[in-house]
Amino acid sequence: MSSPDEPKGAVARRRAVTLHDVADEAGVAVSTASRALANPGRVSPATREHVQSVARGLGYRSTRAATALEAGRTPMLAVLVADITNPHNFGLIRGAETCDDGAANGTLPSCCSAACQIKESGAPCDDGNACTTADTCNGTTDTCVGGAPPNCDDGNSCTADSCNPATGCVNDGPARNGFACNDNNACTQTDTCQSGSCEC
């Protein structure tokens, strides 16, 4: 955290910028800053933009080592060979260097292409949740991050609209019997919902 007499961003010149520094400068909780950077679909667009802007301004860079330390596991694989100059071992090591993000490459919600290349940050992907749209790859964690929820409003005030993560928008929710509605007929004034439709 910078002292009151230091200009913003001074922390970046002293040492590596931490998530705590980003949260302090953005005026949000550390958990909010973490979500805004690693899982932006879980915070409001205004908060996401503000935190990401502060992080860019401070020069914040998430590291896989820090993420692995906090999670207690790492996606790394150690390859031990007796002689690295042996041509046979060279092929083995080159093969181990290709990406593997834990998902089947080229399938959802992988951010590794079928050719086993990690997609750029912001590249479109599908997180497998039908209740998110505009999903993108997070270049920091190589995961697919769900975007904003879809608009499931079918315009019928007599049904309860919702979203099912497996199938998407559900517009045949329970009928809102007895609720006031408007059937757009000027000759009727006491319209109510009955069995999912507006009737006089």
Main attributes of the structure:
200 residues; two-stranded antiparallel sheet; 27% helix; 9% strand; two-stranded antiparallel ribbon; 434 Repressor (Amino-terminal Domain); alpha+beta; elongated
Largest sheet: 2 strands, antiparallel
Q: What is the CATH topology classification name of the domain at 10-61?
A: 434 Repressor (Amino-terminal Domain)
The total beta strand count reads 6
Examine the secondary-structure arrangement and name the CATH architecture of the domain at 10-61.
Answer: Orthogonal Bundle
Describe this structure in words.
- It is elongated, with a radius of gyration of 25 Å.
- The chain has helices spanning 10-14, 19-26, 30-38, 45-58, 64-71, 87-96; strands at 136-138, 143-145, 162-164, 168-170, 192-194, 197-199.
- Helix 2 crosses helix 3 and helix 2 (19-26) packs across helix 4 (45-58).
- Helix content is 27%, strand content 9%.
- It is α+β, with helices and mostly antiparallel strands.
- The strands form 3 sheets. It has a two-stranded antiparallel ribbon.
- It has a domain at 10-61: lambda repressor-like DNA-binding domains (434 Repressor (Amino-terminal Domain)), CATH 1.10.260.
- Mean pLDDT is 75; it is low at 100-109.
- The protein has 6 helices and 6 strands, in the order ααααααββββββ.
